[in-house]
Amino acid sequence: MASPSRPHDRSNDAPLRPRTGETRPHEGMHPPPAELGGALGPGARRGFLTLLGVDLWERFSFYGMSAILVLYLTAPPANGGMGMAPRTATALFATYMSLTFMAGLPGGWLADRVLGARRAVLLGGALIAVGHAVLSVGSAPTLYAGLGLIIVGTGLVKPSLAAMVAAVSGGEKREEAFGRFYMCIQVSALLAPVVTGLLAERVAWHLGFAAAAFGMAAGLAQFGVGLRAFEEVGRAPARPLPREAVRTAVERAAMVLAAVAVTVTAVALGVLPLPAVLALLGLTTLAMPFLYLRTLRRRMPVDSKPLAAFTAVMGASAAFWMIFAQSGSALALFAERHTDRTLLGFDIPASWLQSVHPLFVLLLAPLVTKSRATVLTKVAGALGVAGLSFVVMAVAALRAQAGPVSTAWLVVVYLLYSFGEIVLAPAGLALAAAVAPTGFTSRFLGLNGMFAAVGVVLGGQLYRLTAVLPLPAYFLLLGTAVLAVGTTVAATARRLRSHLPI
Question: Are 59 and 185 a contacting pair, CB within 8 Å?
Fold first, then answer.
């Protein structure tokens, strides 16, 4: 799915990386290159390949489940689904996706201060595998419990994997290492919907979720086998909390988990209405990046104008992710209900169309990444193609009123915002890293993901407009709105650029 969940370079204030001038014991820190056989030595290569394998399997489970979730939620109970209304299903999907982005902040903190990156990957991976297995049971309580386990597990795994990649890669090769991870993620995103979609839509839904659970279990097994390659990397927390503080953190975490468990139980039993809970979580997601910025502003030495310009650009980029994140919800439902998917007598599963996007990313990335355009030009361009993609969807939805349309319409849409993602995702990370004061890089990179989560949850909630708007009008409204945001960024680029260091 959305690139913000992908690994990023936690070059400052990250787990496994000691701050300048610190003289802590060596455990849990990024070992000197010599201890790993050098940045390109056999130990580092084995460690990198192990982490790459874990991430491939973890992303396989993530994209595999995401490809079938909304289809499962909206499928009739007679067909093994949950029978959920499409608008509620898309809101639940968007909330789930946004929370996986947000969970990286507390997950990274736990890895850095309490667990250590290695234990965080093991614990998080186990939670993800169990979460997928619980989802395969097929009931309301297990649905929410499974999604909750996956959210917590993803929050632990993603920042910890990123930190360990940074540790074993070495400074000069770090960018290249993360580039390889980015491309390999697309391989998982390409293959996972094919496997889980075939099992879920053609055999039984629970087999699709079971395949995702198997993927994460395979990644954990590979990680366990390859642990020796890491030596001391990730063995202990990089900046461990005092014992008393650990106890306090555990108590607070237990309170939060208990509150979540009570809420999930209340929703499952029908005591709390699901739409109201999703709306509350959505409002929290919308507020979080601005509250976090307010907190950071008190702690960091930064001029207000660059920070305001950064916030404006990140806010604009959220409009892109608002469009992008509807691949697994609005577009998945359109593929299932309004397209002719018959090819040579074979009825293509609707979830398979979600493999088109990563295929385009793999094909386009070598060409697009060579662009020398400015960050603001890239942001404006990405917003332009994202808006245009939903204008195309508006035409497709209009034609679908007369009967199923060709899947070529969705292929064009995926082509457009695949191009936009390749342009926007690295530009957003580069801007965050450039604006961040020394020692705050990882937190600004986290902000980039938080604004992406804002876009994701907005897209899920706005789909409720289809209750009063025809589908063509809905796509046209969102498409023209995003085009307007892109035009605004282009029109104000000179003024914004004067306040930004990039």
Answer: yes
